[in-house]
Every structure is written in C-alpha cells, then in structure tokens.
Prior knowledge:
The protein is globular and about 55 Å long. The chain has nine helices and 13 strands. By secondary structure, the protein is an alpha/beta fold. A seven-stranded mixed sheet has the order 1-11-6-5-4-2-3, sandwiched between helices. A two-stranded parallel ribbon has the order 7-10. Helix 2 packs across helix 3.
Amino acid sequence: MLTHLFNESSLLSRVVLLGANGFVPRALRIRLKTGGIPHLVIGSNDVDLVDSASPARLVAQLKADDVLVMCAALTPEKGRDPATLAKNLRMAEHVALALSRQRCAHIIYFSSDAVYGSAPSPISEATPAAPSDLYGVMHLARELIMIQSAQTAGIPFCVLRPCAIYGAGDTHNSYGPNRFVRSAVADRKIRIFGVGEETRDHVYIDDVTKLTLDIIARRSTGTLNLVSGQPTTFAALAVEIGRILQSEVPIEATARTGEPTHRWFDESALRHAFPAHRSTTLSAGLTAMIASSTPAQ
C-alpha cells in the first residue's frame, strides 16, 4: 500500500535516475524531458555502482532536495549466476553508503514481481515475498538494503514491483508482447510454448512512467505493484497482435520445458492510491507498440 505525503501533486524537485540505458529509465527520461522536469541521468559510464569508488562519486552528484529513482541493475539476460547477484548487491550497498553521507528528499526503488516467486494468484502487496530464483532474491535483498538505508537517513521511500512491462523501446525481448511483436513484424510468425494457455498480466510502459511521476509528485511511500489488472493468455495475446497487424501471422507451437503456470494480480492497492488512473488496454498498448515497430510505408 502507498501513503501520499502530499495530497496534491507538488512542484517536482530534480529527479536523479540511476540507470541510463534500461527500458524503464529511457522511457522515464523521455517523460521527464517532455514535462520540463529537471533531471539528471547517471549511467554506468558516469558512475559504475559496482566500483568501490562509486559512493564518493554519487555523493558529489546528489543534492538534499533530489528525488532518487534507482533503476540500475544487471537484468537476467546479463546473468543469473551468483557472481551477477553479488554485483547487484554491491550496487545497492554503494548507493546506501552514498545516502549515509548525502541524504536526498525521496527514494524510489524499481524492484520486480519476481520477489513473489511462485506465489498463488491473485497476488497483492500483502502477498509474502518468497523468491524462487536468484533474480528475485536479488531484488528482495536490495529492497531491504534500501529500506534500511532510507530509514536510517530519514528519507521517504517507495518500492515499485512491476509485472512484465511491454512497449516500444524494450531492451529485454522477454517472452510475451515484446518478443511476439518483434517476431510478428520481422519474421511474420509468433512462437509460443505449448498452446499458450498460461495467463499473465502485462503493463504498458507509458502507464509505468506516468505512475512513477505521480508517485514522485505526491512523495509516496510504501510498496506498490505496477500492473494492468488485465490478465490474458499468451495464445490470446498472439491472436490480438495478428488482428492489429491485419494480416495472417502463423502461431507456431514449441515444446514447453515445464508445467504451465498462471499469474495475475489484485490491483486494489493501485486503484486506491490513484483512483483516477485507467490502465492502458492491452489492445491500445499493442497498437501503439506495433505502430512504433512497423516501418513507414
């Protein structure tokens, strides 16, 4: 659940993005620039958070009235091994050390729904975290590191746990809308596991960035799952992509490696925190994504 420290949207302070090249920070940067909001983007070329010298470098960049949004992480395609886990934890350790020397006004940590592991649906913010892989373990551990750091420094803190994010500019090509659209446009076919019966929730990148700015503006604290509340099967998703493209897109079944699992969310906390928010429908999000992915004729 979220608590808004400001009942109305406040004038935004400078936003400092940790992470420059990921899907979320790139999209956030565009929204900040479009909104004329002061911001500073710090990528690994500027401050390598794995490096022991990074806390001092980060301290030199931070100001007391900054909002710090931490998106920097080595994602699963970079490695799922203990060495990658250790690097990710070191990054959080160094950010925490910097904050012990230079506090800021607000911290937002981008986590993942992977912290819930294989918890039964519907999943809510009250669902106990029980990660089932090192990626989920990493995010849960980093949440705890950042929470302790924020509490010690007296900084308002918010954890965001998005489900699978899709949209133009995706950098992960994960199974689902991102991979399906690329494959449909480039190869004129979509491959699914089994018959695509698994149910999942996918959230549009524009909704993620809009909600993040709302959280910054209200200086919200607590934990929130970023979801759409529109679970669908992968098979239905593939069919919808073909419908939007207005062409035959063959769907090829491939052997699955495990039993199908279903996963969806209770979005009550999101609706309570932002009653006026309306999630982008999957059809509208896919249409916009495909328009950005299809070469102009």
